[in-house]
Amino acid sequence: MTSVIGAGAFGTALAISLARDGSEVTLWARDAAQVAAMSATRENAARLPDLGFPDALKVTGDVESLPEGPVLLAVPMQKLRAALQDLPDFGARPLVACCKGIELTSRLSPVQVIGDVRPGARAAILTGPSFAQDIAKGLPTALTLACDDDDTGRDLQTTLTTANIRLYRTVDVPGAEIGGAVKNVMAIACGAAIGAGLGESARAALMTRGYAEMLRMALAIGARAETLAGLSGFGDLTLTCTSRLSRNYRYGLSIGEGAPFDPSVTVEGAATARALQARARAMRLDMPITDAVVGLIDGSRTVKEAMTDLLSRPLKEE
Ligand SMILES: NC(=O)C1=CN([C@@H]2O[C@H](COP(=O)(O)OP(=O)(O)OC[C@H]3O[C@@H](n4cnc5c(N)ncnc54)[C@H](OP(=O)(O)O)[C@@H]3O)[C@@H](O)[C@H]2O)C=CC1
Ligand SMILES: O=C(CO)COP(=O)(O)O
């Protein structure tokens, strides 16, 4: 039995996929009106319209009624701490972060935030390339489940694998987390380049040099290079930097096109770019594309200026 905290796009999609296999899943939302609507219509009309809930999916607003078994925390990175602080103590139940990014106030990763709020909890992260719509529709996906306790990781891998989600396991939690955080920043950069008409070659350059920044930060925090070459790094970078289904990429497009963007949409890369830049500066790491994205977001650089900054850096070896 699995519980999902947060009936956003990702939490709902995971719950649908698990329940479609017949697993008992309880999806918790904090908003009573949303709970009532989802219970009545058996869909999440706001986030995943027309994708009905399987019978095994239970909806609740009563967090005390959640069953034993893993708890998936499917809330945005910058909301994870507040969500955990409002939730009851889940005892020995594994807590699985289902978010991507770095907390702006602390520069901590999702699993580090869980450890900060719930010391001693068995924590893991589920990350990798997948759009909620694809998961909910039953399309094939492959994701990474990272847990530093391999026994817990094996249990979670078995429990959370579904007919359309193939899970790969790793104990390299920092590696899995940093890939998912940095790829969103790079997706904003790529969207901005395409939106400003800079072309596909510029996008390929940003993806490749963005991967170099991802790897630089990963190695500096003790992660394994192989993890970054996998689903949570290279895989998710590829998906997010090339698809208009990505909200981070679309946010970048809007910057490049000078078009408005709905501020209520979850764009993890925006806050994470600032957190990543602060972390990189403290660690004396060179992350020029991250710097450029922060400049675009705070309005201090135009796309043209940011690209000129990147192209005029001293020449170096690859
Ligand atoms: N969407 C996707 O395709 C994918 C998303 N992810 C990751 O999943 C994470 C969540 O994204 P996604 O589901 O898309 O986001 P959404 O914006 O669709 O949903 C966010 C959910 O979090 C809930 N929430 C926010 N703050 C709190 C809080 N303090 N306590 C409890 N619940 C809270 C919201 O509730 P309310 O509506 O009441 O505000 C909402 O249900 C992100 O880190 C994202 O990167 C990963 C892979 C794919
Ligand atoms: O993380 C995702 C794909 O793996 C979803 O990307 P967005 O948050 O940019 O929509």
UniProtKB/TrEMBL annotation:
Keywords: Cytoplasm, Lipid biosynthesis, Lipid metabolism, NAD, NADP, Nucleotide-binding, Oxidoreductase, Phospholipid biosynthesis, Phospholipid metabolism
Gene3D superfamilies registered for this protein in UniProt: N-(1-d-carboxylethyl)-l-norvaline Dehydrogenase, domain 2, NAD(P)-binding Rossmann-like Domain
GO biological processes: carbohydrate metabolic process; glycerol-3-phosphate biosynthetic process; glycerol-3-phosphate catabolic process; glycerophospholipid metabolic process; phospholipid biosynthetic process
GO cellular component assignments: cytosol
Residue sites binding sn-glycerol 3-phosphate per the record: 100, 128, 130, 183, 236, 246-248
Domain Glycerol-3-phosphate dehydrogenase NAD-dependent C-terminal: 172-307
Active-site annotation: 183
Chain positions recorded as NADPH binding sites: 10, 30, 100, 132, 247, 268
Primary subcellular site in the record, as a coarse category: cytoplasm
Binding annotation for NAD(+): 6-11, 132, 247
Coiled coil: none
Any one GO MF annotation of this record: glycerol-3-phosphate dehydrogenase (NAD+) activity
Subcellular locations according to the entry: Cytoplasm
Pathway: Membrane lipid metabolism; glycerophospholipid metabolism
E.C. designation(s): 1.1.1.94
Keyword Cytoplasm in annotation: yes
Binding annotation for substrate: 100, 247-248
InterPro entries the UniProt entry points to: 6-PGluconate_DH-like_C_sf, 6PGD_dom2, G3P_DH_NAD-dep, G3P_DH_NAD-dep_C, G3P_DH_NAD-dep_N, NAD(P)-bd_dom_sf
SUPFAM superfamilies: 6-phosphogluconate dehydrogenase C-terminal domain-like, NAD(P)-binding Rossmann-fold domains
Domain Glycerol-3-phosphate dehydrogenase NAD-dependent N-terminal: from-to ranges: 3-151
Enzymatic reactions: sn-glycerol 3-phosphate + NADP(+) = dihydroxyacetone phosphate + NADPH + H(+); sn-glycerol 3-phosphate + NAD(+) = dihydroxyacetone phosphate + NADH + H(+)
Similarity comment: Belongs to the NAD-dependent glycerol-3-phosphate dehydrogenase family.
Function text: Catalyzes the reduction of the glycolytic intermediate dihydroxyacetone phosphate (DHAP) to sn-glycerol 3-phosphate (G3P), the key precursor for phospholipid synthesis.
PANTHER family: GLYCEROL-3-PHOSPHATE DEHYDROGENASE, GLYCEROL-3-PHOSPHATE DEHYDROGENASE [NAD(+)] 2, CHLOROPLASTIC
The protein's name: Glycerol-3-phosphate dehydrogenase [NAD(P)+]
